[in-house]
Amino acid sequence: MKFRHDINGLRAIAVMAVVLFHFKPSMLPGGFVGVDVFFVISGFLMTSIIFGGIEKGSFNIIKFYCARANRIIPALSILCLFLLIYGWFNLTPNDYKTLGRHVAGSISFISNMIYMGETGYFDTSAHEKWLLHTWSLSVEWQFYIIYPIMIVCLGKKLSIEKIKISLILMFTLSLAIAIYASLANSAVGYYFIPMRAWEMIAGGLAYLYPLKNRDSIRAPLYYVGLASIIISCFIFSEETAWPGYYTLLPTLGAYLIILAGCNDNKVTSNKISFYIGKWSYSIYLWHWPIVVYLYINQLSYYFVYGILASIVLGAISYITIEKREFISVDSVSKLWKIKPIYIALVALFPSLFVLNSSGADYKFRYGASSETQAFLNEYAVKHYYLKEAYWLKCNSYESLTVKKSLEVSPECITKSGDGGVFLWGDSHAEAWSLGIRTLLNGRVPFYQKTSAGCYPSLSDSTIQTGDFKVACDSSNKVALLSIEKIKPTTVIIAQHDNHELTNWKEIVLTLKGFGVKNVVVMGPLPQWDPSLPKVIIKSTHWKGKDQYVTDEGLSERPFKSDLYMKSIANDAGFIYISATDKLCHKEAGYNHCLARLSSGELTAVDYGHLTQEASVYAAEEIIKPKLGTIL
Predict the structure, then answer these.
(1) pLDDT band for position 376 (cuts 50, 70, 90)
(2) With 0-12 CB in 10 A as exposed, 13-18 as middle and 19+ as buried, what is 600?
């Protein structure tokens, strides 16, 4: 096929949209649509290779796979190996083990499935997952595997024209599934190939049904397509359900540009677009680890340097790795000649070692034994000792994943006396559990119904996915049934974030209809990016003794939610208790929040879950003054 400058330029637009979005979301809130543009391009190129080969009688499926492996695996493997080396010196055993799992998932092209199952309880922030962006490569590779096999099999029974019609039907079905998934549970669709296949098939249809003798409309189609992509970058955001019907706009834009075939248009056919397009795959590979590095080290304000570094490293990767010619074979018996397979193993084996050695938890490894890393590991380990403090026996997700059952301990929801206190919510509600139980001291019954990442709701979750959704929906239903049956005097509710999205008035009316006298909502706790322990090991805080700390890692989100909750409490009919009012104060225009107790113990084990000591302290200092007479 003749080199398509327009497609190469489209790659440049796509990769820079993604890069700008990841480094500075406010700059290009919908820049993630660049991934959708990449999917359309991949579908076009795959279809042209497959159908072009079939029409000439020269298509070889093994050769096709080899060509894809030669293109994708070497640069990806080198990046993974680099991250494993970096992690040896810089990551705690817990974080290093996570990296090992993600490297193994990326190299084996199943990372989309891994990330799809990593939403919820104590999960690592997206901005701490060094290879999160490889989910799209996994989706593409899975399509690479399935697509040619499907076409070849259909070709044995159907004519080329009927295969084309079959692809139109598959496009329609996949799009319908994506739209349904986006309305019901968008996170599943985001990572899952059945909801993404239509975008790649769209690219294929641009090849199968080209414009013929319609030169007069090529330029208009090109500019409509370009405008569609540019508009998408600004009107959509992380809050948009994706993929779904909104995704049609950038997908259609990419389709129209490819269909128009304006190979010499200066927007996509210029020197800058030429090189950025050529380097786009490597730029994409390297940009996200740089984003993570800046985030973890709280250097995000250096995003301009991060963007430049992504382009420079992408160029180096392209010149030194991608441009290398690797042998291609046409039969399974010759696969041993494919060098990228060995390059992949060079990264895969160390990742499996890291994964199976608990993150290379050896004293001689600097990342595990330095003073600051040992401190981080100490707080990582503290997660595993919160089971009793948080009453995880009441957590539906914990029960589902450990016991393969949604049944929780009878103690959590079985009536043991008149009145009492019922704790309802997610893991941030659980963070209050030990403190509340300590205050009650067995004087009145205590009940708890919680689940990972599960906001209290009267209806099914539209945020969680997979097991988290199953557990959440069950947890909320059980909580409501239990409250109705037990009739506790007080229900205490807490959740991590998104307080503005919860229908508090409806919840309060329902609970009071059950006979609950006091509905109490705990305000959000202070939250630290990427975590309080990682904030504390910074040179400005590491040797300090200040209990209250201000830092660029102190999130503004809880303070905004706090103001919102204060504004609606009276009208909604609940008692609101602000956590930030007691744990934080303003000084010289900056928020300072309690980070260390007088004992030296941190107030959070991670970004915001209370330590055991902090739970007792916070309950005594925050809840008791407000609810002393009630409790």
Answers:
(1) confident
(2) exposed
Q: Is residue 362 part of a domain?
A: no
CB 49 within 8 A of CB 151: no
Same domain, 321 and 407: no
CA distance 497 to 386: 21
294 Cβ partners below 8 Å, 6+ apart? 23, 300, 302, 303, 306
- 407 and 276 share a domain? no
- The boundaries of the domain holding residue 326 are 5-356
Residue of 300, 306, 254, 309 whose CA lies nearest to 34: 254
CA pair distance 424, 520, nearest whole angstrom: 10
Structure tokens at 131: 């290879």
Which residues have CB under 8 Å from 304's CB, separation 6+?
A: none
Alpha-carbon span 533 to 519, nearest angstrom = 33
Distance CA 143, CA 171 (A): 13
Q: What pTM does this model have?
A: 0.82
User: Is there a single domain that holds both residue 318 and residue 399?
Assistant: no
Give per-residue pLDDT as tens, 439-471.
999 999 999 999 988 999 999 887 776 788 899
HSE (CB half, 13 Å, CA atoms) of 443? Answer: 9
351 with 448, same domain: the answer is: no
What's the domain count of the chain? Answer: 2
Instruction: For residues 342 and 451, state if they share a domain.
Output: no
Instruction: Print burial letters for 461-496: b (CB count within 10 Å at least 16), e (below 16).
Output: bebbbebbbbbbbbbbbbbbebbeebbbbbbbbbbb
At position 112, the amino acid (one-letter code) is N
The answer on 300 and 207 residing in a single domain is yes
Residue 79 lies in a domain: yes
